């Protein structure tokens, strides 16, 4: 990371730290992460405690966000629902970042012909939307968390590879890489020890953006009924349940939806802020 | 120009072929035997055999693949397992709503993005420009199904201006068709409009510092007219490539939007087929969707060549 920022970008760095978007991003996603963390130990009400008499209560002092169609506390549901959404986004992002970076490095390090083939296949992968893959997988594997994770990673891998390959090629053309080659370093050593640290900022930015995209895709799939299956709850699933009741109980749709917006916005802002901070020249790109 | 087209077309055919293999293999390898997938684990041996016989699933993969692709090329994809529809006619009927939805969103988002992005780039040091970027960020973070529900709540339930669900063909009743598509198209276009706006903004800010802009200003143009006449054209060219990347997202979004607004399009058919385990329909439908995406990409490639003389001449020189 240091190697790139050494080229006289000190002044920008200090302005970037004052960047309001990074700060706002950290606040928003920190808020969401805190709620998820707390939900493992404590929720204001039992999230699965059904109480039909109290169904569809609007927000009040004892039920901050009101109750859902079965009289469960909506805020507790949202807290617990964040676990599944964030878990799926996290695993898919890790898979996408690790496999995608490796693939991108491999494409950059291999000869022009193999590199072109990998890039072309990545392009096809990028063209295939996750939701399509998820629906194909839901047909065979059945709906659920596994199908969703595979589908999202299936898209993240080529996206990351495509973002990594260009900058990796640029680094490979630099003198210090040639110096390492003359020292007889292996290709793998050069790619992972010398090229990777220099493209790490790009991967970090990409990771943050993918995490946000993962939340969106998971929520959409759960909303369509092919994501989280009962008894697991998820933000998208809460909204699916609220859809027929949108007229009767608007808060039931709006409050969980707001949580999705806050978290996606938070991680996107972090990605944006970091891209300016870590590498101003890359800040204009970004696929997700 | 013809060279660009031929090259893009070849790539498209290769991509479609690869995609079809991926879908074919995914459906047959991930969940185990495809007949069991369709009938469930409790199905009797006879009914499984009968299903394999009807759909030719007992043949080798190569034979199955060849006959499937043959069916795709001749437009004969057989009947759905439920026997409720013939797959190719069903897909053909459902193309209209999906294409209107996706193209409509694309056609609306591009001009909005150009205008708003230009405005925001010209004011990028002022709060006006930055706030446009902030709004675009929020637009990116709103899930389509959430926006759809909120729009329904406001415009259909509370104000009663527009229908909440349903689809009317433009050929039967144009006015009602327009009314029924306002909310779906708005929902679907928000995300891509946000992406395009941010893209126009950043590329426009880059263009503002180019030498030709300084020349234009030196020749007596105002900043605004220089930006509109010279800058916008240069900024719009890379938009075409981003547009190609967004097409997949648009198709994915149409699955969601068609389901919220109960529009009888391809996305809705794909979801119902996936949920009812109509593997044969899902297989053909995925390929059709892939071909739509690739065709739109091809269209973008050609457009790119037309818009940017540098690309055209570089290709011609090769």
Note down, in words, how this protein is organized.
The complex is a heterodimer of chains A (288) and B (318). With 288 residues, chain A is mainly alpha-helical. Chain A contains 11 helices and no strands. Chain A is elongated and about 75 Å long. Chain B is mostly helical. In chain B, 80% of the residues lie in helices and 0% in strands. Chain B is built from 13 helices and no strands. The relative contact order of chain B is 0.14.
Helical percent range of chain A?
over 70%
Bin the strand percentage of chain B: under 5%
Total helices of chain A: the number is 11
Mean pLDDT of chain A: 82
Which outline of chain B best applies?
globular
Count of β-strands of chain A: 0
Question: What gap, in angstroms, lies between the N and C termini of chain B?
Answer: 12 Å
Greatest interface by residues involved = A-B, 50 and 56 residues
Low-pLDDT windows of residues of chain A: 1-11, 282-288
> How big is the Rg of chain B?
24 Å
Biggest beta sheet attributes of chain A? none
Q: Estimate the mean pLDDT confidence of chain B.
A: 81
Describe, in short, the structure shown.
Chain A has 288 residues and is an all-alpha fold.
Offer a few descriptive terms.
heterodimer, A: 288 residues, mainly alpha, 11 helices, 0% strand, elongated, disordered N terminus, disordered C terminus, B: 318 residues, 13 helices
Summarize the SSE layout with pairings.
The complex is a heterodimer of chains A (288) and B (318).
Chain A: H1 2-5, H2 10-17, H3 20-39, H4 74-109, H5 112-127, H6 130-140, H7 145-172, H8 175-182, H9 187-224, H10 235-242, H11 250-278
Helix pairs in contact in A: 2-11, 3-4, 3-11, 4-5, 4-7, 4-9, 4-10, 5-7, 6-7, 7-9, 9-10, 9-11, 10-11
Chain B: H1 2-29, H2 34-39, H3 45-55, H4 61-74, H5 87-122, H6 127-141, H7 144-158, H8 174-208, H9 211-218, H10 223-260, H11 266-275, H12 279-307, H13 309-317
């Amino acid at each position: 990371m240091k190697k790139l920022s050494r080229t006289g970008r000190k002044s920008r760095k200090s302005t970037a730290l004052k960047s309001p978007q990074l700060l706002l991003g950290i606040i928003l996603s920190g808020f969401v992460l805190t709620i998820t963390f707390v939900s493992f130990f404590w929720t204001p009400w039992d999230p699965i405690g059904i109480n039909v008499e109290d169904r569809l209560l609007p927000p009040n002092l004892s039920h901050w966000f009101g109750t859902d169609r079965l009289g469960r506390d909506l805020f507790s549901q949202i807290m617990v629902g964040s676990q599944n959404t964030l878990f799926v986004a996290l695993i898919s992002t890790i898979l996408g970042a690790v496999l995608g970076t490796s693939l991108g490095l491999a494409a950059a390090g291999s000869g022009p012909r193999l590199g072109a083939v990998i890039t072309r296949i990545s392009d096809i992968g990028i063209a295939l939307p996750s939701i399509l893959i998820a629906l194909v997988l839901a047909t065979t594997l059945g709906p659920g968390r596994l199908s969703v994770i595979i589908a999202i990673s299936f898209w993240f891998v080529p996206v990351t590879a495509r973002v990594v390959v260009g900058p990796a090629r640029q680094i490979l053309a630099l003198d210090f890489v040639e110096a390492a080659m003359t020292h007889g370093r292996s290709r793998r050593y050069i790619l992972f020890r010398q090229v990777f640290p220099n493209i790490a900022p790009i991967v970090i930015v990409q990771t943050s953006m993918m995490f946000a995209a993962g939340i969106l895709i998971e929520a959409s799939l759960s909303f369509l009924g092919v994501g989280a299956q009962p008894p697991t709850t998820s933000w998208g699933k809460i909204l699916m349940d609220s859809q027929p009741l949108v007229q009767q109980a608007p808060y039931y749709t709006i409050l969980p939806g707001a949580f999705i917006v806050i978290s996606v916005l938070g991680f996107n802002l972090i990605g944006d802020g970091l891209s300016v901070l870590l590498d101003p020249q890359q800040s204009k790109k970004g696929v997700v | 120009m013809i060279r660009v087209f031929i090259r893009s077309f070849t790539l498209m055919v290769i991509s479609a072929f690869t995609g079809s293999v991926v879908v074919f293999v995914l459906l047959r390898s991930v969940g185990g035997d495809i007949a069991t997938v369709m009938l469930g684990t409790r199905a009797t041996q006879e009914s499984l055999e009968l299903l394999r016989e009807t759909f030719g699933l007992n043949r080798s993969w190569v034979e199955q693949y060849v006959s499937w692709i043959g069916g795709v090329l001749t437009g004969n994809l057989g009947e759905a397992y439920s026997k409720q529809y013939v797959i190719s006619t069903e897909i053909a009927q459902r193309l209209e709503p999906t294409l209107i939805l996706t193209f409509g969103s694309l056609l609306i988002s591009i001009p909005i993005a150009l205008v708003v992005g230009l405005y925001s780039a010209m004011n990028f040091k002022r709060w006006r420009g930055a706030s446009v970027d902030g709004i675009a960020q929020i637009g990116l973070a709103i899930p389509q199904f959430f926006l759809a529900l909120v729009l329904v709540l406001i415009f259909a339930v509370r104000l009663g201006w527009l229908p909440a669900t349903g689809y009317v063909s433009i050929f039967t009743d144009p006015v009602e068709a327009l009314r029924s598509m306002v909310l779906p198209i708005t929902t679907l276009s928000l995300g891509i409009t946000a992406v395009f706006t941010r893209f126009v903004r950043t590329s426009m800010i880059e263009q503002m510092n180019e030498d030709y802009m300084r020349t234009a200003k030196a020749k007596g143009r105002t900043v605004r007219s220089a930006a509109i006449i010279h800058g916008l054209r240069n900024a719009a060219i890379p938009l075409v490539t981003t547009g190609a990347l967004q097409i997949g997202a648009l198709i994915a979004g149409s699955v969601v939007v068609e389901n919220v607004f109960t529009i009888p399009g391809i996305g809705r058919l794909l979801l119902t087929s996936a949920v009812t385990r109509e593997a044969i329909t899902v297989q053909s439908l995925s390929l059709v969707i892939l071909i739509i995406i690739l065709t739109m990409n091809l269209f973008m490639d050609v457009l790119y060549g037309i818009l940017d003389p540098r690309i055209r001449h570089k290709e011609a020189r090769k």
